[in-house]
Design a protein that fits this description.
This protein is of the alpha/beta class. The protein folds into two domains: 65 residues, no CATH class; 192 residues, Rossmann fold. Helix 6 crosses helix 7. The longest helix is centred in the N-terminal third of the chain and has 21 residues. The chain is globular.
Length: 275
């Protein structure tokens, strides 16, 4: 399939999936390859025939939707974000957790992919913050709509390319090497629960002190769906909780309960007076 054919198809199909083309412009290659395989599997001649096929097979849209998921992740992605979490955000949230009588700081990693983000949080806490808050633990819930990604996260084995942004001392401490893969040691996995969930439809139970929804809803979803997802996220946050977006993302209009905390890192905070 030629690139211009794929672009025309995505510009037509994405709005019908409540997604937005600009978010896919730079990463469309991943989607186009999957789309090519799907067309071949169906025995169709090309993308134009597939477009016609969608018109006569409504159930095919449910197959197209997961083909449009972008899975790009690695440990410690956007170093400045994790540095800010370690130096300012988590140390500010921990006392509030203690004041309300809890001993666990709850974190939701939404769109966790193959687990690099939640595992980075667990490692960061263990290495940099646990000694400052010895009585406190993390309770991390990591969700993704793709069951294959969840299974990869649970396997907790990664190629070096996923670890290249981690400080070398962390890599040596946290991972056991097996041939060409790096396996996370069990002590860094115990605080994380992985769930197959689509943020467009549901969220994990309870309230959270920190939510990370980076490079997902506010990049790929259309405006109306972004607002719906934001409402879901806000209702899952404690008063005073923090929300982290991707560094190039912005909140949609109507986010009155949230104010900017760290602008460059796209960290927002919910009003402490809001439950």
């Amino acid at each position: 399939m030629k690139d211009e054919q794929c672009v025309r198809f995505l510009q037509w199909a994405l709005p019908q999936l409540r997604m937005r083309w600009p978010g896919f412009r730079k990463v469309r290659g991943q989607v186009c390859k999957r789309l090519d395989r799907r067309i071949r599997d169906l025995g169709l001649e090309g993308v134009e025939e597939y477009q016609t096929y969608l018109g006569g097979h409504a159930d095919e849209w449910a197959c197209l939707d997961p083909l449009c998921r972008i899975s790009i992740s690695r440990f410690y992605r956007d170093k400045a974000v994790f540095a800010s979490l370690a130096q300012e955000v988590l140390p500010s949230l921990a006392p509030a957790v203690r004041e309300r009588g809890d001993s666990a700081l709850r974190i939701w990693s939404a769109g966790c992919g193959s687990g690099e983000e939640p595992y980075t949080l667990a490692v960061l806490w263990a290495i940099e913050l646990q000694s400052r808050f010895p009585e406190m633990t993390l309770d991390i819930v990591a969700t993704d709509a793709d069951l294959r990604m969840i299974r990869r996260a649970l396997d907790a084995r990664y190629k070096f390319s996923s670890l290249k942004d981690l400080p070398e001392s962390w890599r040596n401490l946290v991972f056991a090497r097996e041939d060409d893969t790096f396996c996370i040691k069990p002590e860094y996995t115990r605080e994380i629960k992985f769930l197959e969930q689509d943020i467009r439809q549901e969220q994990p139970g309870g309230h959270f002190d920190l939510v990370l929804c980076r490079n997902l809803a506010f990049t790929y979803y259309d405006d109306a769906l972004q607002r719906q997802v934001l409402r879901r996220i806000v209702t899952a946050m404690h008063g005073g909780a923090a929300l982290v977006l991707g560094v190039h993302e912005h909140l949609p209009e109507g986010a009155q309960e949230l104010s900017i905390w760290l602008d460059k890192q796209r960290v927002y905070r919910k009003s402490s007076s809001t439950i």
